[in-house]
Specification:
With about 55 residues, the chain is of the alpha+beta class. It has one domain. Helices cover about 30% and strands about 30% of the residues. It is built from two helices and three strands, in the order H-E-E-E-H. It has helices at about 1-5, 45-55; strands spanning about 15-20, 25-30, 35-40. The chain has a three-stranded mixed β-sheet. Strand 2 (about 25-30) and strand 3 form a beta hairpin. It is globular, with a radius of gyration of 12 Å.
Amino acid sequence: QLRAAAAHFPLGVDVVAIVCDAGAVPSLRRVADLSVLTIGYLEDLKHSLAKRLAT
């Protein structure tokens, strides 16, 4: 479903799915053309997105 949703965005748009799993260590993985960012706490989101944009 995530890949189907990501396909609706125009070419050149970097689609990031965010999974919040209490206590998880922040991580980023690629699934096909989709980035999946896992965070453990909402506070991790800002730092993780900033880190993602820097790469």
